[in-house]
Amino acid sequence: MSHVVIIGCGVVGAAIAYELSQVKGLSITVLDSQPPAQASTGAALGVLMGIISQKLKGKAWQLRQTSVQRYETLIPELEAITGRKIPFNRQGIVSLCLEGEDLADKQKLLEIRQSQGWELEIWDKAKLQNLCPQIVNEQVTGAVYSPQDRQLDPTALTLALVAAAQHNGVTCKFGVTVLNAQSSPQLTPSENSPQVCHQLETTAGTITADWVVVAAGLGSTPLTSQLHQKIDIRPVLGQALQVSLGHPLGNPDFQPAITGNDVHIVPIGGGDYWIGATVEFPGDRNEIPPNQELLESVKQQAIAFCPELASATIVRTWSGLRPRPEGRPAPVIGKLPGFSNVLLATGHYRNGVLLAPATAYAIREMIIPSNSQ
């Protein structure tokens, strides 16, 4: 039986653990220095911008499409196994169009998505006002509506993935740090033969592995450095806030996620909304103290779109560091260069929740190719 060790239990690591738990012949251990969903996952808004994204083709689009399709079956599957309710908004995403934006680009996106079998709608200002009367802004000229995109609670999702994986026999060890990764040449070495990472030294002892999956976000850089194949992942801070109105905005029966100018207004029930998120890059020392002015700016932009939010009470604010690959596109999915059994599933930047199911499929395929299942 092959032993797979997954390092990192944010939404990506948890999705991989659950996906692999359905494969016979694998023994799976998940390691994380903290409880699940504590880092970037715990600060995400869970807005799954797949169909409405500007990624039109290639790997970036395929990952999105795979995940959007999988979420429709994954959520009820996890709820059935765990008995947990995962907040999952099926009312779509409304992307506001602002003055000066080229509607020809929106029409092109609509036509491409229709050719791919997906729905999008272009709303004029009158239709937007009718369906989302809470949007009152002279600069908003209309919207693109994506009825098949979704929003969910990333923490609830991650905890359900962990519970379902454990139900299927996965061992999870939290509060455990990887101290060192040991590697050696393959048994039949040649001049260009890859290395094998066969053993991890951890604060809970030595763990042997047939496969190592690095899904540790920002923690991926020190781990890969230990194997002398550094994958450079840099932090980008995101801040968000939760506000309470005590009643729904606009039409109580139509509560989609609304996005405009990279500001999200996300209904979470009970008249509460998430608003976010900032994008804050590190300074010279890689430090990012949260910038309160930027968070206030995001809040004010949300109020500019939806003036009723001005009377909302702030319930809480929070922040998290997103893992962004340096000098290469996000995410990083594939074998660690020079190694036959170390797989990377990291650096998802702002799309970890969106791309978690597709990433899990990709890792499963690397370990158990379809033609050998």
UniProtKB/TrEMBL annotation:
Give the highest taxon in the source lineage: Bacteria
Give start-end ranges for the coiled-coil region(s): none
Per UniProt, which keywords does this protein have? Oxidoreductase
- Please tell me whether the keyword Glycoprotein is annotated for this protein: no
- SUPFAM superfamilies linked: FAD-linked reductases, C-terminal domain (SSF54373), FAD/NAD(P)-binding domain (SSF51905)
Can you give the residue ranges of the FAD dependent oxidoreductase domain? Answer: 3-365
MF terms from GO for this chain are: oxidoreductase activity
GO CC terms of this entry: cytoplasm
Task: Establish whether keyword Oxidoreductase is in the entry.
Answer: yes
State what protein this is by name.
FAD dependent oxidoreductase
